[in-house]
Amino acid sequence: MVKSSSDAIKAALLLPAIKLVSYILQFLYRKWLYFLTDKNSDNKAEHMQLPDTEQTAAQPSRKGKIEVSPQAIGTIAGRAVTECYGVVGIASKRLHSGAAALLPPERYHQGVEVQFSNEQIVIDLYVVLEYGLRISEIAHNIMSSVKFAVEKMLGMPVVQVNVNVQGLRVSASEDTRERDGRKHARRGTEQA
Fold first, then answer.
1. In whole angstroms, how far apart are CA 106 and each of 39, 102, 114?
2. Residue among 83, 70, 81, 80 at smallest CA distance from 109
């Protein structure tokens, strides 16, 4: 018996749909288990313990726990921040000689402070933004991006993301435009 092309298309579309529904059900089941279980509060200041994963008959039972350090969470948040429009980079928490010091990617966690409270995460970010853009819009974009990235990777709720703007920087192209504008203004006054 020869299947029609429409049957083949239906079969090709059905498998990804089944996988998607299965993934959603697993996610909801884990969230349900997370809210039903009462976690032990030991070592909350040092590591965040992730909720247990789903156990099925096909999988052997897993013993142990998964902990994620604040430094790892800081790296996740730092990467999410740098992908946002208007962000120059992650800055250190303290100013050096009155100026914000940008951190290299391997030290992003030093510009991110992570706190745990009641199985929830609070994140403080220290950033340098592009001069001339609306700071509030960039900050809200950072907040939503970091919340999404951390929750997606950890499966834990982020209740608060605080953005601390340590400085503003003028981009190189904008800096040259300003200098060119001043040169033209001086020429205009010299000729008058």
1. 32, 12, 17
2. 70
Paired with 67 in beta bridges are 49
Give one word for 118, left, alpha or beta, with left for phi > 0 and alpha for psi -120 to 50. left
Q: What is the pLDDT of residue 191?
A: 57
For the entire predicted model, the pTM comes to: 0.60
DSSP result, 79-114: HHHHTSTTEEEEB-SS-BTTBPPBPPGGGGGGGEEE
Beta carbons of 50 and 34 less than 8 angstroms apart: no
The rounded distance, in Å, linking the Cα atoms of 23 and 29 is 10
Q: What is the pLDDT of residues 119-173, one digit of tens each?
A: 789 999 999 999 999 999 999 999 999 999 999 999 889 999 999 999 999 876 6
